[in-house]
Design goal:
The chain has about 425 residues and is of the alpha+beta class. Helix content is about 40%, strand content about 20%. Helix 6 runs parallel beside helix 10 (about 235-250).
Length: about 425
């Protein structure tokens, strides 16, 4: 590579340019509104954590920790990891600040980039973004149902409901999981020759994860595995039934998939995924479940917990295929030509923005004559050009020219501009 060649973004890490931003903002706006409606509070935490956090929570034998984390020693030699997910970090933050001791019931949400060194393809990146929520201190199926109702609402508000299917499963209690694990080990040992290399390695450490295998060569052996749902105890079965009753009542369709195990070690009880057929191999847009032991495992008080995360890029791919959102354009482009006009333009713009908080007003900067400024005004997409030449500046007026309609231009005194825009653009005036 020659020293003058342009530097590229790191593979699998995307820029989001302005022509795409409307999709992000649309989702974020709806998400924030829903979070307020359901009374969840935002939490923010660092991008970088001690590497040991994810080893202890996501799991040492998970794909994420085994193969995908960005882990490095910093200048002090401390081993750090770019967060591959938010749940463990959220719990670390709550434990560190003793939040659950003070207020055991918490409903929290977060949004931001996560990092996994996966092989990039459509819908799978090395820096991606999650919307997530975590609810603490509540047992029973009601909170599980709440977060599934909430996701259903999100799909509805985005116009994507028809694209999703909900799959649920229960991983049971530690006791039933051990019994199921034993049955799986027995089964897979019997069929050892049919296991791929990854699965043979997992047989000792984490046989449940074999169920997660996406290798087509494993399909046959996975067809007849013992079913997790046959091993559930009364409590876990009752809770799953209760959740199903809530979902039935709410009219939310679901499928019980007893091979759904999820790729992270901290789950207990419910696990679920919202999947779609419209994204090829990257079918899961939202995944989550219960993790009742994680808070205590990371040094906090015993606390039940349940949550999920949504991959924003995957949601955006679906949204883009459904609707065309264009990036916002300014309402008004303020042209200014001449020394006096240039001086007045910024002040006039400040006054207008102060009085009209919803007005989007672009002030031309950088000089140039009327002709070149008009070209830029037109290109900006603005509905209205406000013209401030030296004549207007002297007379404290502005000339209004309609860029998208066949209408006569008008000259308006500057002190009437607020009223003018209120009427013309239907804007509210700040009290
Ligand atoms: P996860 O299944 O690892 O769960 O990730 C959740 C979602 O993030 C996936 O369903 C997918 O949409 C998105 N995602 C994951 N990896 C990538 C990638 N490389 N590129 C693009 N999108 C990706 C978790 O992260 C758990 N923390 C979820 C959770 C929260 N469980 C309980 N609370």
């Amino acid at each position: 590579m020659s020293s003058s060649s342009a530097i590229q973004a790191v593979r699998g890490m995307n820029d989001v340019l302005p022509d795409e931003i409307a999709y992000w903002q649309h989702i974020e706006t709806i998400w924030r509104r829903l979070m307020t409606q359901y009374a969840y509070q935002e939490i923010r935490f660092p991008l970088v954590e001690a590497a040991s956090l994810f080893q202890r929570s996501v799991g040492e034998t998970s794909d994420i920790v085994e193969k995908e984390t960005y882990t490095f020693a910093d200048r002090n030699g401390d081993l750090l990891t770019l967060r591959p997910e938010g749940t463990a970090v959220c719990v670390r933050a709550l434990v560190q600040h003793s939040v659950l001791q003070q207020q055991p019931v918490q409903r929290l949400w977060y949004m931001g980039p996560m990092f996994r060194h996966e092989r990039p393809q459509k819908g799978r990146y090395r820096q991606f973004h999650q919307l997530g929520l975590e609810a603490f201190g509540m047992h029973g199926a009601a909170i599980e149902a709440e977060i599934l109702l909430l996701t259903t609402r999100l799909w509805q508000e985005l116009g994507l409901s028809a694209l999703f299917k909900l799959q649920i499963n229960s991983l049971g209690t530690p006791g039933t999981r051990a019994a199921y694990r034993a049955a799986l080990v027995a089964y897979f040992t019997q069929h050892h020759a049919q296991l791929d290399e990854d699965s043979q390695r997992r047989l000792d450490k984490n046989p449940l994860r074999i169920l997660d295998s996406k290798n087509p060569a494993m399909t046959a052996v996975l067809q007849n595995v013992p079913q997790m749902t046959d091993y559930l105890d009364e409590v876990a079965r009752a809770q799953l039934n209760q959740l199903c009753a809530y979902l039935d009542k709410a009219g939310i369709a679901y499928e019980i998939n007893s091979r759904l195990v999820r790729g992270l070690d901290y789950y207990t009880g419910l696990v679920f995924e919202w999947v779609t057929e419209h994204l090829g191999a990257q079918a899961t847009v939202c995944g989550g479940g219960r993790y009742d032991n994680l808070v205590a495992e990371l040094g906090g008080p015993a606390s039940e917990a349940v949550g999920f995360s949504i991959g924003m890029e995957r949601l955006i791919l679906l949204l883009q295929a459904q609707q065309n959102l264009s990036s916002p354009v300014p309402d008004v482009y303020l042209l200014n030509v001449g020394e006096l006009a240039e001086q007045n333009a910024l002040k006039l713009a400040e006054d207008l923005r102060l009085a009209l908080p919803d007005l989007s007003l672009l002030v031309h900067c950088g000089g140039g004559g009327f002709k070149s400024q008009f070209k830029k005004a037109d290109k900006s997409g603005a509905k209205i050009a406000l013209i401030l030449g030296d004549d207007e500046a002297k007379q404290t007026t502005v000339t209004v020219k309609y860029l998208r309609e066949e209408r006569e231009q008008v000259t308006v005194p500057q002190y009437e501009m607020v009223e003018f825009f209120k009427k013309e653009l239907g804007l509210r005036i700040e009290d």
